[in-house]
Amino acid sequence: MYALDIYDSAEYVSMAMQCPNEVHASTSFLKFLIDQQATVLASAPSTGYMGVYLEGDSIKHVGLLTAADRMHSKWGIGHLYDHLIDEAPASYGCSLRIYRPIDSVEALRQFARYAVSEGARLR
């Protein structure tokens, strides 16, 4: 939610409340965005891009780059950290890919598509 700038969106909260518990703006949603090519790999890091940590092909964590070598990311359920990209916990994976960001309006549109694909019935 933080990396997609929808963490304080009333529209997101309304949609998420209509979804099964496991359907929310998670790493599974980010995988959906990547699979749908709503976000694409960047050729170089840039401020505002998403840093995606992986273990194999499994997305473990995502943050927002604040510089070529730094990012803000939310660890756990609420703590926001400013850290070097190689300072993330080992449990977040051993490889990093950089993706171009999407704006919050597009993120909400894509979340609605994702939620429906996961069985939610949105009003």
Overall description:
By secondary structure, the protein is an alpha+beta fold. The chain has two domains: 1-39 and 104-123, no CATH class; 40-101, no CATH class. The chain has three helices and five strands. It has helices spanning 10-17, 27-35, 104-117, and strands at residues 50-55, 58-67, 70-75, 79-84, 95-99. Strands 4-3-2-1-5 form a five-stranded antiparallel sheet, with helices on one face. Helix 1 (10-17) runs parallel beside helix 3. The two termini are 21 Å apart. 23% of the residues are buried. The mean pLDDT is 93.
Give the mean pLDDT. Answer: 93
Largest sheet, in brief, is: 5 strands, antiparallel
Helix content: 25-40%
What structural class do you assign from the helix and strand content?
alpha+beta
- Unreliable stretches (pLDDT < 50, length at least 5) are none
* Rg for CA atoms: 14 Å
Query: How are helices and strands ordered from N to C?
Result: HHEEEEEH
Q: First CA to last CA: what distance?
A: 21 Å
List the strand order in the largest sheet.
4-3-2-1-5
Helix count, per DSSP? 3
Can you tell me the overall shape? globular
User: Strand tally, please?
Assistant: 5
Structural domain count = 2
Q: How much of the polypeptide forms β-strand, as a percent range?
A: 25-35%
